[in-house]
From TrEMBL:
The gene is Gpc5_0. PANTHER family: GLYPICAN, GLYPICAN-5. One of its GO terms (biological process) is cell migration. It is found in: Cell membrane. GO terms for cellular component: cell surface; extracellular region; plasma membrane; side of membrane. Keywords: Cell membrane, Glycoprotein, GPI-anchor, Heparan sulfate, Lipoprotein, Membrane, Proteoglycan, Signal. It comes from Cisticola juncidis. Transmembrane segments: none annotated. Its main location: membrane. This is GPC5 protein. Cell surface proteoglycan.
Length: 318
């Protein structure tokens, strides 16, 4: 699952980067770092880091606005000092140059990434539980019972006689009593996994949310461009007027993004994630009774005598 997450994130990041390189070339190089930081934050969030989708997205748009303002809205600006850039970042929060698109992106990503984050944490918890019970500590009484069950017949020369099924079950249930107590919690864990997997395939579709990032950013930039004169008037009042060079950059350097992207059909980076989810939860549901039936699993097959009327009951051959 983590490999699938990372594959989707890399694809979405590359697609977002190509948006700037194709449609907004004047700011493509400078936008590379904010794009990288955005997807790094998203990856960390999925893996359980103490961060939020909202802070990651808004931090990205804070970094993006100075670039949009100085490269697209006012491409003649030459003096973009650190103080002026910081003023633009702070102004972004007040004048909302990207309209509702930034908030919409936060909403969409928060819903889908939440389910992925919870599934990632649940899987990590499941690994911890399985690892903690992989080496069950055997009591002295359990060890004696196991020896009596498997080796005491050898003292009578009965090397081919195996334990009776009922006798084996009694011994194993006694040895694994503490492990079998996990049954209720394990069943709840499987139910939680099933819920999260279903959420990821419904309204919290991770693939759809990640594939829509570039589109939301595109719409946000277009919105800022359309409202360029009003934004410039407000920024001039708050941050002052920066130094400009004569003439503007060629209009050819900004490609109408709608014309570019409409010819680029979306290709899913990891089309198998949905099938992986279904296969995974089907497999996990089969293990719902694992801890309750672990004694039965161990007392199956070659360990016990099933196809004979003669077996060892701990004291004698019956």
């Amino acid at each position: 699952f983590l490999e699938a997450f990372e594959s989707l994130l890399r694809f979405a990041e590359n697609r977002t980067s190509s948006l700037f390189e194709t449609a907004y070339r004047p700011m493509a190089k400078e936008a590379a770092e904010p794009v990288k930081e955005l997807f790094t934050d998203i990856s960390l969030y999925i893996l359980g880091a103490e961060t939020t989708v909202e802070s990651a997205v808004l931090r990205f748009f804070d970094s993006l606005f100075p670039l949009v303002y100085s490269r697209l809205i006012n491409p003649g600006i030459t003096d973009l000092s650190e103080d002026y850039t910081e003023c633009l970042r702070l102004t972004r929060q007040d004048i909302n140059p990207f309209g509702h698109y930034s908030k919409n992106l936060v909403t969409e990503l928060s819903k889908s990434l939440w389910a992925s984050r919870m599934l990632s944490r649940a899987l990590s918890l499941g690994i911890e539980v399985i690892n903690s019970t992989e080496q069950a500590a055997l009591s002295k009484e359990c060890s004696r019972a196991l020896v009596r069950m498997q080796y005491c017949p050898h003292c009578q020369g009965l090397t081919l006689i195996r334990p009776c099924v009922g006798y084996c079950l009694n011994v194993m249930r006694g040895c694994l009593a503490s492990v079998s107590e996990l049954d209720v919690q394990w069943r709840e864990f499987i139910s939680t996994l099933e819920y999260l997997v279903n959420e990821m395939g419904a309204s919290h579709e991770l693939e759809a949310a990640l594939s829509g990032i570039w589109s939301a950013i595109n719409e946000a930039v277009l919105h800022a461009q359309l409202n360029g004169p009003q934004l410039s008037a407000t920024v001039d009042k708050v941050c002052g007027q920066p130094r400009q060079q004569g003439g503007n950059l060629s209009a050819a350097s900004v490609v109408p993004v709608r014309a570019v992207t409409e010819t680029q059909p979306f290709v899913m980076a990891h089309t198998s994630l949905g099938s992986k989810r279904r296969e995974f939860i089907t497999y996990m549901k089969r293990s719902r009774t694992f801890y309750a039936s672990i004694a039965e699993r161990l007392c199956d097959g070659d360990l016990v005598m099933r196809d004979s009327s003669t077996c060892w009951n701990g004291e004698d051959v019956v």
